[in-house]
Amino acid sequence: MPKKEIAADRFLQDHPHYDGRGVLIAIFDSGVDPAAAGLQVTSDGKPKVIDVLDCTGSGDVDTSKVVKADADGRITGASGASLYVNSNWKNPSAEWHVGYKLVYEFFTSTLTSRLKRERKKKWDEINQEEIAKAVKNLDEFDQKHTKVEDPILKRIREDLQNRIDFLKKHTESYDDKGPVIDAVVWHDGEVWRVALDTQTLEDEPDCGKLADFVPLTNYKTERKYGIFSKLDACSFVTNVYDEGKVLSIVTDSSPHGTHVAGIATAFHSQEPLLNGVAPGAQIISCKIGDSRLGSMETGTGLTRALIAVVEHKCDLINMSYGEPALLPDYGRFVDLVNEVVAKHRVIFVSSAGNSGPALSTVGAPGGTSSSILGIGAYVSPAMAAGAHAVVEAPDEGLQYTWSSRGPTADGDLGVCISAPGGAVAPVPTWTLQRRMLMNGTSMASPSACGGIALVLSAMKVENIPVSPYSVRRALENSSIPVGNLPEDKLSSGQGLIQVDKAYDYVRQYGNSPCVTYQIKVIQSGKSAPTSRGIYLREACYCQQSTEWTVQIEPKFHEGASNLEELVPFEECIELHTEKSVVQAPEYLLLTNNGRSFNVVVDPTKLSDGLHYFELYGVDCKAPGRGPLFRIPITITKPATIVNQPPVISFSKLKFKPGQIERRFIEVPLGASWVEATMQTTGFDTTRRFFVDTVQLCPLQRPMKWESVITFSSPTTKSFAFPVVGGQTMELAIAQFWSSGIGSHETTTVDFEIAFHGININKEEVLFDGSDAPVRIDVEALLASETLKPAATFNKIRVPYRPVDAKMSTLPTNRDKLPSGKQTLALTLTYKFKLEDAAEVQPYIPLLNNRIYDTKFESQMYMISDTNKRVYLVGDVYPSSSKLPKGEYSLQLFLRHDNMQILEKMKQLVIFIEKKLEDKDVIRLSFFSQPDGPIMGNGSFKSTVLVPGKKEAFYLGPPSKDKLPKNSPPGSVLVGAISYGKLSFSQGEGKNPQKNPVSYTISYVVPPEKIDEDKGKDSSPNESKSVSERLEEEVRDAKIKVLTSLKKETDEERSAWEKLSDTLKSMSMLIRFDVKSEYPKYTPLLAKVLDGLVSQRHVDKISHYEKSPVHNLESSLSYGPPHSFALTSCTLQVVEAANEVVGSIDQDELAKSFALKSDPEDEEGEKTKKKMEANRDYLTEALYQKGLALAEIESLKVEMGEKPLSTEGSKDHFEENFKELKKWVDLKSVKYGALLVTRERRQGRLGTALKALNEIIQDDKEPPKKKFYELKLSLLDEIGWTHVATYEKQWMHVRFPPSLPLF
Asked: Which positions are annotated as active-site residues?
């Protein structure tokens, strides 16, 4: 653990009790494992981890369902499992909250992969045993029956073979979704308690039972954790919210957070060399990395983490997360951080990023926010030799090559200070190791944070006022420089943190005013934009002097006394700078109300390249305090290319390990891409280079191209990348810090850049849906270029508005902001349908691609099917997923404390973006004439552009017959267009996105073509009288009412029966005194059957009905009555199906299908449609009758009766089956369940499974639960428990009872 580099070892040697004691650090990360080595207690015996929180909600379990135990102490878990609660558990209310979750949802992808491998191995062993048994059974059959000719024997042998085939195919299709764990939450009269049932994770049947679980409560109450199982070795903690309705099971989303916590605070009593920097400090773990998103941070996680910081009164925050940002020092999270720092005096430390070595690569929030200390990554010779085990350590310490550099886009330094960026530190137990090496600014940040904790520990004991403002000043003014040049500050900040010197500083100047200095810089004569430094990057600023107005305003902590702090504040400031370039006043009197002054910067005499200066202010009365504020001045004076064609070369560049060469070039106007070559010579061992280019454009993230290139021997490599003409481009070439160590040979690099470009009048092409082409003007401004345009549409975006919008107040304290406001949530629901399987991705233009640089707090979406199966979860960076055909819901969850903002979002338009398959990609055509798309002439292919001469061509819209199916009006086709071609490319360049630079094209789908045939046949049948037509309308209206009636309660069922009785003749089972209105009208009888079928699925057996059974039995020729329980509804289905069948003349139906109809014969076509409808009624009736007969038979068998096919009795099921077989293909999805039932009746379970699998595979709609329940029952009957267990786990994926929590 590197401590010497920051003088932590010397400090602790002199002050052993200032080891972080009394300091509480919040770790904003992927989660901390409280079971990890060194994270149990502090150096003075206190608990190390005092709270563990999942701020993302990714581990939330819905436990709103409440159940009660029966007399045996048994409850039904949310998964459907039967669970026994421990009789010793106190539960005064007798109410048990239950929930469940797939355990893999708690695990990282690495842990899940390991478990899947181990579980698959065990599953394969069991499956192979079953295959061996099945093969043995087939062999025994073949030995017994040498010649199989009997049809029954053939079917038996086929069934045995089908069993073998099923098991083999299951091995190939095995996809482990993980075990399900049941969670139970209850209140024991004092606190909420949690127990888990993890039997599905265990190999031993008696392990993991709910009753054996040692109950947990909220972690901060008892500081206890659990482990799911010995196999996963994954620890977890629990927290209960919203009166038991939400259970948070907290695991980490990667080893990163535990490693970070270990660097900052680990304590090993027996091995002090392994201690973190501040072994006496305590921590709270705030998980901001969402497990659903692969550990990506979310706005929800960040906000809740800040809330936890204030609640726990933390002293420090460490956040080793971040990403590039559109705007520096901007956004909702930055606003909340500013409030927490100013009001609660929290010191926020964060990583600067790992996107170096180019300048302006610092990430948000660490490198871009004024209230946060951004930390760069340093490597010392000792670290190189020890942790990295290089063959020869460097002579002196340096920044890691990949450590991000400043300045920010608005001129701030970006990197505050640096700290060691690599360490061997603790990792979670599930990794099956105690420690591992990681490096990054993620490791530098906790190293600095631990160092600051040492200083705070001392300040608290010595009663020195703690302020993030004074501590930052102490750190910056006591650090030691890394490198000898002024511009090295852009890499390492003010230098390497020195704990002992920072301590000396706060002791000497600790009673100075707790104030920070807010700096706003604006170019004189302009009103915007304001910046925090002066950054002259573009050529126009480097060719003349510029004047800037600097506003400096002291900022005190919230609550500072007006009379005691603000009024007396007055500082005489002496300004220092490099006077040959920067002119500024010498002195400044600064009061609480601030002061402005002008600065003139003259870069005209500077050489090309990077120059860095600082304008800083020193207290005239106490110059030893060092700079009180600094205004960074960065000048990147670019080289101008004058030769034609525009080529620039950098020859004989010499590189040693860690060396960086920067070149700044003014990209010629008209350039849009670069073709570069890199030649290396003069070395023996392998060399690794980072090659970066960066351009800054307004209101965009830095435009960065990067490549890591490995040269195993001297050679030349070529590459191309896009550029923006007229903007300065930095080229940064760096030999990796450890590459070539030990060889003592310098690497020589020759780098050549050739600029190319085709200037166009439309960077984004939009087709309005008309048939008109778009004219595109092109010219080459730099040199002759081959114009070879290519354009394709490969995506379609379909717009949707929400069908539902619900606003709610989030009920728990974890969503109560430090200001006291409660966070609100808006849930928007969108519906969309896919006619075919497609790869889809949500697209939300207003919200996508911004986490930190947005004023919106948070967003999260999930896409689910009609079964509530979740296919896709995402946030600001939507991902794509292949979805099957079907209907889907997208729920978008938005959070903010401002209701007015959320109200504006209630009609938010989103797009569902579908990726077109390769065969459906639309390639556009180019024309030299405006009428080309219609006339089909004047095709344009390619030409050579000559500088100074403009040319033009037309881009034709897509042909209407090539538009994707189901493209509603208003949809937008999206694609790309390119114009140029790489000089070293061998391909045709037909894919614009593979060409050097491409631009977006889009096409708005126009209104649909009017159907001219629509309405032709809609006129009523004039041959019928008015009274006949009126009677039909009344009849159909009554049937419609009948269909619409619900049957959920006894009252509703009674109303439905009364109406159906009046409309048709009821069977003897129901009543005899009802007058029939339409006794033989088949559509009515079919609707009655439908109603009874739907009711049958919800009816429960409540009592024995003997006499009605006798009557029905007689009518079905079953013989004597039987004393067993039947649902009345099942018997009614059989009777209703008979009525439908009896209402149809099957002979007439058969004849009509034997005849070929004439499409021009209107009456014939009507008759045909009627017969088709009758056939559908008939087949549905026979199908439902078959299912009902099978159910009756099954119930008889359960009651000890013999099957109907025995005792010489008539087999009604088989007769019905044969009738249905005349009309339909029984292997189809619609009727296949009956085929499976028949095979099951005959004992051919293997064949039944095969048929069922084929039905499921052929079903293009969302999965039907009845098929999978049937599959489970077959597997249970056949005795394949391992496959049944597997399928039960999948049932929770395919058919969850509800959507998960956001």
From this structure: 29, 256, 442
Q: Which of 996, 987, 988 is nearest to 718 (CA)?
A: 996
Question: Distance of CA 865 to CAs 689, 839, 862, 968, 1230, Å?
Answer: 48, 15, 10, 21, 20
Closest CA to 437 of 419, 420, 415, 416: 420
Q: Which tokens sit at 267?
A: 């304590």
Does residue 615 contact residue 631 with C-beta atoms inside 8 Å? yes
Strands (E), 804-898: 804-809, 824-834, 838-843, 858-865, 870-874, 881-883, 886-896
For residue 422, CA distances in Å to 135, 377, 399, 406, 493 come to 57, 8, 11, 21, 18
SS3 content of the chain, % helix, strand, coil (to 5): 30, 25, 40
Location of structure tokens 């109303």? 1055
Residue-wise DSSP of 76-137? E-TTS-EEE--TTS--TT--EEEEEEEGGGGS-HHHHHHHHHHHHHHHHHHHHHHHHHHHHH
- For residue 803, give the DSSP letter: S
Low-confidence winner among 346-360, 477-491, 955-969 (lowest mean pLDDT): 955-969
Tell me how far apart the alpha carbons of residues 466 and 24 are, in angstroms, rounded to a whole number. Answer: 13
Alpha carbons 248 and 250: distance in angstroms, whole number: 6
In sequence order, which residues have a C-beta less than 8 Å from that of residue 266 and are 6 or more positions away?
A: 1, 37, 38, 39, 274, 275, 276, 279, 425, 426
Give 218-261 pLDDT, tens digit per residue. Answer: 999 999 999 999 999 999 999 999 999 999 999 999 999 999 99
Residue with tokens 């360049």: 989
Structure confidence by residue, pLDDT tens digits, 1032-1079? 677 677 777 767 777 667 776 777 777 777 665 433 333 333 334 555
Residues 6+ apart with CB under 8 A from 1182: 1137, 1141, 1216, 1219, 1220, 1223
Would you list the DSSP string of 1068-1107?
A: TTT-S-PPPSSTT-HHHHHHHHHHHHHHHTT----S--HH
The dihedral sign for the CA sequence 327, 328, 333, 336:
negative
Q: 871: how many CB neighbours lie within 10 A of its CB?
A: 14
Backbone angles phi, psi at 480, to 5 degrees: -105, 135
In 671-758, the DSSP E strands lie at: 673-681, 687-695, 703-711, 716-722, 728-735, 747-756
For the chain, give the mean pLDDT. Answer: 90
Could you give the angle at which helices 1050-1063 and 1082-1096 cross, rounded to 10 degrees?
160
pLDDT confidence of residue 1022:
54
Sequence-distant (6+) residues with CB within 8 A of 530 are 410, 520, 521, 522
Task: Kindly report the pTM of this predicted structure.
Answer: 0.90
- In angstroms, rounded to a whole number, what is the distance separating the alpha carbons of residues 1258 and 64? 37
The answer to whether 889 and 802 are in contact (CB under 8 A) is no
- Judge whether 989 and 941 are in contact, CB under 8 Å: no
Q: Name the phi and psi angles at 881, rounded to 5.
A: -150, 145
Concatenate the DSSP letters of all residues of 1158-1176 into one string: PTT-HHHHHHHHHHHHHHH
**Percent of the chain predicted with pLDDT > 70:** 93
pLDDT at position 495 over 70 = yes
Mean of the pLDDT values across residues 713-723? Answer: 94
User: How many Å is the Cα radius of gyration of the chain?
Assistant: 38
pLDDT tens by residue, 611-648: 999 999 999 999 999 999 999 999 999 999 988 899 99
Outline where 825-945 has alpha helix (H).
Answer: 899-904, 932-935
618 and 576 in contact (C-beta within 8 Å)? yes
As a whole number of angstroms, the longest Cα–Cα distance in the chain is 117
Q: Which pLDDT tens digit goes with each residue over 810-863? A: 999 999 999 999 999 999 999 999 999 999 999 999 999 999 999 999 999 999
Chain-centroid distance of CA 982 in Å reads 36
pLDDT in tens, 437-459: 999 999 999 999 999 999 999 99
